[in-house]
Amino acid sequence: QVQLQESGPGLVKPSQTLSLTCTVSGGSITTNYYYWTWIRQPPGKGLEWIGHMAYSGTTYYSPALKSRTSISRDTSKNQFTLQLSSVTPEDTAVYYCARGDCSGYVCYLRPPFYDYWGQGTQVTVSS
Q: Which residue from 17, 20, 29, 69 has the least number of CB within 10 angstroms?
């Protein structure tokens, strides 16, 4: 059973950097052909894909957020981390980590499938 757990501050001030960590148990984040993904849902809106860290260490980001987004990993701790800089109140959302099954060319052909999700964590951007 793969489990994902988000952690990090629930309140971030405008202009600062949001930092969340996803801890994975029951499977390695370096296992072939999995894509460790950050997704968010602002209040009253749908899910928004932020970006992912592939099993190989390669990262991909949403064009809308690319300039502000960094995903890293610590393989010794089986964790991957989201950093979103220069936040505003519009970054307020529930943030999820999830495991996806495709990237690149394949994901031009179909959407990725996420078989495991964290519970989500509320992050509020406010002064």
A: 17
54-80 pLDDT per residue, tens: 999 999 999 999 999 999 999 999 999
SS3 50: strand
DSSP letter at 105?
Answer: T
Question: Beta strand 121-125 with 11-12: parallel, antiparallel or unpaired?
Answer: parallel
d(CA 63, CA 51) in angstroms, rounded, equals 9
> For residues 61 and 112, what is the distance between their CA atoms, to the nearest angstrom?
14
Pair 42, 30: CB distance under 8 Å: no
Please report where in the chains the tokens 């988000």 appear, as a residue. 6
3-state class (DSSP) for residue 25:
strand
The runs of H, that is alpha helices, within 26-104 are: none
